[in-house]
Amino acid sequence: MIQDFEQQAEAFHQELYREYYLAESGLKEQLSITPIYERYAHLFSEHQVRRLLEDTHDRQHKYLTEWVTLEYLENLVKGLTEQVTNAIRSATVEWDRQQVPYHNLRPMMSNEPDMARRHQLDELERGITASANAERVERLRRLHDKTKSLGFEGYATLCDQLRGLRLEELTQQMQNLLRATRDVFLQLLAEHLQGLGVPIEDAAACDTLALFRGRKFDVLFHEKSMIPALSRTLGGMGIDLARQSNLELDIEPRPLKTPRAFCAPIRVPEEVKLVTKPIGGPDDYASLLHEAGHAQHFVHVDQDLPFSFRRLGDNSVTEGYAFLFQYLLLNPQWLRRILGIEDSAEYIRLVRFRKLWLLRRYGSKLLYEQQLHNELDEAQQQYVNILGDGLGVAIGPENYLADTDDAFYCAQYLRAWIFEVQLRHFLEDQFGVEWFATREAGECLISLWRRGQELRPEELVKDMGYDGLEPEHLIQELVGFTYD
Ligand SMILES: [Zn+2]
Known about the structure:
By secondary structure, this protein is mostly helical. The chain is built from 21 helices and five strands. The longest helix has 32 residues, at 59-90. The model has no long low-confidence stretch (mean pLDDT 94). It binds zinc ion (ZN).
């Protein structure tokens, strides 16, 4: 019974991800998910969801229930999701007497050296974002109402219970992190922004796009070296990228292709796409490495595992592997061996600050999103207050809904950041700081990847025979530098 259901679920999942892949990679003009949901409507009937929710004792069942429930909710609002996505995708603004598509605005802000012009671009982007906010509110209201009628106290409780997020503990950890790093963060923020010519009192969130774009480091991160660097890194772990027939590297430039790299695990482990539009620069490297971490995880998953463990399960696991690859950029040995960068101190200083920014941003988002799902009417003000307090810059109120993901994905990122620190420590203890250049580390990772997402990060860490980090060291390790 559960096998039949899983087979159907997997077929649906494949069609859905293929559609996302085609739209995001620019092979298809419009995203069209409604017909897919309609074909598989029987999977997401209310009866089905209620039946699954009655009994979630074993893990396979639990992961399937989590997924079906969230897809059931999405199915109820898919028209609005599509409406918002397509309105944003086709929106353009006039800039320097040219029509510019919405999805070009962020890259343009990252590359704009003049603060006033950057702020104007940001205002244009926020205008488009705001134009779809009524639909976003309606979408959330429907999700909230349905959550309650399923018998949950609220949307946060539903996500916490079904996804095993441990929200209370995580919230506590993030409050500690926000408190402990506040002074050092504000000091570093002012220093970094000054280097960019932005006085702290004028700073907006979009200025950090330009800061983290790190243009002056472009010379170290060539477009042409990107794929070879990835290939060499994997080679060091005994993995031959060119011979992975289940991984397709899509690097063809297409006008509608999303500028950021992404990984589309369409059939796990048989058909995984790593999609990128290489432009070079440190940011592009970071997102390629991140997505390559996902891709390596998915192509190595044991094909005999049930769908629930191959593709569903705890996403903090795959995000942890993605961060492990991404933060090779914080490893001076990797920068030297793979990219030939001898003096990486200044670059690493920026990447560390970026990580601190992101931890504070997602920590703040975790606090904010709990408020959002509790009291939608006051959410906009809460967004400005909580994010502004966490990040020390002006926050655009129009983004209060667009800047969130469904189902507390922010919590899964935060759990993944914690997992990455533990995993990296384990690899460094076992194989040294140049673990990425050893076959043994590759074998160790492959044996973890094979397990899919059956185990949660805390269980994997325990399973490695590694105690993990003492809670009092965790913040320090997450941030990656010593402060007082
Ligand atoms: Zn990711």
